[in-house]
Each structure stands twice: as structure tokens, then as C-alpha cells.
Amino acid sequence: MRRRQFFALGLGLAACASGCATAGGGGHGLGPVGVVPGGERWAPVAQALFRTLRRTGYPATGTGGATTVTVTGLPALAAAELNDQRPMHVATTPLARLTGNVEVLVVPANSRLKDFDAFAAHLLAQPERTYLAGGPLGEPDHLLFGLIAQGLGVDVRKIDYTGYPGAQEVAAAMQGGKVAAATGRLRDWRARLDSGRIRPLAVSSAVRVPGVEAPTLLECGVRVDFADWCAAVGPAAMDRERRGAAVRMMEEATRSAPWHEACRNGGWEAIPLSGDDFATWLATESARTRRVLRELGMLDTPSTTYRG
């Protein structure tokens, strides 16, 4: 398939891998720490991390420094796979997982799909006639539908998925009868859920979300724990000493009161994981993403059904 649509996100990861300088020293062994977003979507988290580092005593800047930390996430990881680039855990130095956005599976309020079991039965019986929607192709919403289909034993290449720019366009398609079910970040659908215009069938987190009357996918028998996450990475060339200092910095920052306050204010779930544990998790996440992209027909073969 053509991969031009994923080029911008892939460039962000490539720039981090090749252009993040790490010369210099400082009181923490890092020198001035530049915190930069890997793309516009990660700018709020990058800004929150910058402020947290300043409040916890690190000489953070909003631009490049002696040590540059890039805030990036799942869409960039998927874009690297689609653009045939090195996986994120190889192209960068993994430092810490930061935040995640829980995803929700929704249907119109008047849908005949009364619960997740009804949705699953319909998808199993008629995957090509269960019209699904969410964000752009290859991004978290699409990946989640692929994982759900995998978990149910559905032939993933048969699912019919349309990618839209955002939740507003998905909601309009749903109201127009073009979409049977959609996935998206819970925060983007909360107002419509509260209004009763749509119903939640399941959430992607490992535990239920307070205030949302829906089970987890795990409770529904689908072995998926999923979030639209973002993380902090350094350049691939980081030496062991500087990496250790950067990981300790991230651990201090993500344990701090300012960081938890920033997560509450931003509506993000804090999902801290750092150092070697994060690097191992990231490699696993890369492999999972690669598998589902392949089953969706977006790697190696054009045989899937999708629009957008």
C-alpha cells in the first residue's frame, strides 16, 4: 500500500534518532535538558514534562539542549513500522512511559447492538458488514479494532474500517447511519456519552473506568489491555552513563506531585514505566503493533478492506 500518509510521523521519530545531540555535562550529568514533542499531538505532554522537570530542579529548556528528550507515542511507533523504518526501541533510547489515554468502544444510543456480546456476535458472523470507524488508518483506534478482531477470532482482513480525522467526523457518520461502532479516546467521547447520544460497550483499560457504565475488554473475554500512550525517549547514541542519569531524572519527575497534578489537569492517566522495564515493554508493543498491522493488511499485502 502507499505509505505517504504516515510520512510526517515517521519523520519525527527519524529526527529524534539522528538529530538529538547529547554532548555536555551538568549537575545531574546531563547538562541542560531539552524537552521537545515528536509531533504537535504530543506538545501538551511535552510542555507538562518540561514544567515538571523545572519544578523538580532540572535545567530543562523548551528547545534542544546538551541532552534532548523527545516526547512521542504509539502513532509514531506504528508509522515507523508502516514506513519500514527501524522500530522505536531500536531507533531511540527508551527512557520512560509517561501517560495513556483509555479508549472506548461505542455505538449509537438506538443501536441494536445492546452490549459487547451482541457486537462480538455480529462481527464474527459478518465482519465485512459491521461498519467500523475511528481515527486515521494505522493509528490507535484502527489498531484497537484489529486487536479486538484478533481476540475474537475474526478474520482481521475482512473487517470494514473507515478512518476519519477526528471524533466529530466519526460521530457525524454514526448519526448518519454509516457506522455501526467506533473506537476513540474516552476523553474525546465523554461529552457524547454523558449526553446519552451514544452508548459505551467496553473500555480498553485493564480496570473499569469510574463513571463509565461499561466492562473492560478483558472482562468481555478479549485479552487486550490497550492505551493511546506517550513516552519519553532519547537519541539512539546515548551512552550508558547518560542514559542512567536520564532514566533517574524521568523516575523522579514522574513520581513528583507536579507531574501527578499535570496529569489530572490534562485528563491523562499516568502509566509510569522506566529504564530496562520500559525498553522491554516497548519492544513487545512494537511486535504487537507490527502483527496487527500485518493482519489488517497494511504491511506486506493490500488485501484488507478499509477506507479513509
From TrEMBL:
<feature type="signal peptide">
    <location>
        <begin position="1"/>
        <end position="23"/>
    </location>
</feature>
<dbReference type="Pfam" id="PF03401">
    <property type="entry name" value="TctC"/>
</dbReference>
<dbReference type="InterPro" id="IPR005064">
    <property type="entry name" value="BUG"/>
</dbReference>
<keyword id="KW-0732">Signal</keyword>
<dbReference type="InterPro" id="IPR042100">
    <property type="entry name" value="Bug_dom1"/>
</dbReference>
<comment type="similarity">
    <text>Belongs to the UPF0065 (bug) family.</text>
</comment>
<protein>
    <submittedName>
        <fullName>Putative tricarboxylic transport membrane protein</fullName>
    </submittedName>
</protein>
